[in-house]
Design a protein that fits this description.
mainly alpha; Rossmann fold; 0% strand
Length: 92
């Protein structure tokens, strides 16, 4: 199980090739980084974001991606997270 269950599907070679072509970078983040991002978004911005939607923020906060001089956009999606699980993550 993962906090980013919406991203837990397997990616085949063709899908990975499309991603490599269309994306600047593909990175992974830890479960702790995802939980930290969920907590940070809740505490700092009063947002309820599921793990799959928080992975971009997790990558940024864990310094898995760098911000240069160009603008950086992270799309936050999904609030489909069990309320008890979310509360447990947010309370630390």
């Amino acid at each position: 199980p993962t906090l980013a269950d919406g991203l837990a599907g397997e990616v085949d070679d063709e899908g990975l090739a499309v991603g490599r072509f269309a994306l600047d970078e593909i990175v992974t983040v830890s479960e702790d980084a995802i939980a930290s991002a969920i907590r940070w978004l809740a505490c700092e911005y009063a947002l309820k974001v599921e793990g799959s939607g928080a992975v971009g923020v997790a990558a940024l906060r864990a310094e898995r991606i760098a911000i240069g001089a160009e603008p950086c956009v992270i799309v936050l999606t999904g609030g489909n997270i069990d309320e008890m699980r979310w509360s447990s993550i947010v309370s630390g």
